Amino acid sequence: MADKEDKVPKNVNGPFYVDTNCIQCGNCIEVAPENFKEGDEFYYVSKQPKNDEEFKNCKQALEECPVDAIGHDGE
Question: What is the pTM of this model?
Fold first, then answer.
């Protein structure tokens, strides 16, 4: 489970985030390229979902993350 106290600093504010457990596997960018971007060490949420399709893709990325580095805190 992702740790909201260990969020990657580049994440935009909002419910979805990536923490520093990210191994840059590429899955989140493949599943939700409009919402995740590659940083120097970790991927991060560059844009929170704005519609149902983006939300569904972000949720799928969260569920498929092999190291549980993507979180959703419901804020």
Answer: 0.94
